[in-house]
């Protein structure tokens, strides 16, 4: 009767598995490398998105600041727009930040024009009031246009 030798059986099993663990380890290493690359890519994309959202929020805050300053400019009794500048011609001598006529340069771009060209023209408009309190590297200005069809100086109202 033959009895199995456990020592011989263990050696035979190890010989058959030679290299299998190396193959499994290499497959796991490749999988972990691909997961790490995907994670780095995801983090990079998240940083770009959060940076764009911060830029957007800062821009919105700057626009709100400009609107608030223009509104306070209108209601400031020292500026008194209607009495100080009631002409409807571009030759009127109005304070900065106010025009009692329509400035064609301030119209949004139409077909064939770009926004870059529009903003370049807007920067050349005289009589703008600069914004204060903007974040670093931001600049802005406002112009209030009175679009009245009649002279409102005597009426005590605005446009």
What this model shows, in words?
The structure is a single chain. This protein has one domain. The protein has 159 residues and is mainly α. The chain has helices at 6-16, 20-75, 81-84, 115-123; strands at residues 98-99, 129-130, 141-142, 144-145. Mean pLDDT is 75; it is low at 151-159. The chain is 50% helix and 5% strand.
Question: What is the global morphology?
Answer: rod-shaped
Sketch the major β-sheet.
Answer: 2 strands, parallel
Average per-residue pLDDT, rounded, comes to: 75
Rounded to the nearest angstrom, the distance between the terminal CA atoms is: 116 Å
Strand order of the largest sheet: 1-4
User: What count of domains describes the coordinates?
Assistant: 1
Low-confidence stretches: 151-159
As an assembly, this protein is single chain
How big a fraction of the residues is strand? 5-15%
In short:
50% of the residues lie in helices and 5% in strands.
Task: Please give a handful of descriptors for the protein shown.
159 residues; mainly alpha; two-stranded parallel sheet; 4 helices
List the helices and strands and how they pair.
Elements: H1 6-16, H2 20-75, H3 81-84, E1 98-99, H4 115-123, E2 129-130, E3 141-142, E4 144-145
Parallel strand pairs: 1-4
Antiparallel strand pairs: 2-3
């Amino acid at each position: 009767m033959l009895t199995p030798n456990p020592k011989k059986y263990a050696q035979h099993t190890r010989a058959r598995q030679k290299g299998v663990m190396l193959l499994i380890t290499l497959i796991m290493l490749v999988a972990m490398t691909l997961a790490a690359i995907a994670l780095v890519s995801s983090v990079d994309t998240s940083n770009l998105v959060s940076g764009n959202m911060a830029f957007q929020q800062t821009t919105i805050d700057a626009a709100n600041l400009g609107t608030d300053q223009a509104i306070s400019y209108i209601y400031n009794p020292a500026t008194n727009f209607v009495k100080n500048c009631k002409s409807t011609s571009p030759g009127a001598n109005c304070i900065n930040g106010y025009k009692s006529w329509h400035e064609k340069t301030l119209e949004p771009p139409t077909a064939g024009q770009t926004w870059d060209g529009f903003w370049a023209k807007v920067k050349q408009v005289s009589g703008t009031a600069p914004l204060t309190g903007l974040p670093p590297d931001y600049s802005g200005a406002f112009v209030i246009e009175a679009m009245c069809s009649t002279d409102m100086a005597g009426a005590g109202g605005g446009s």
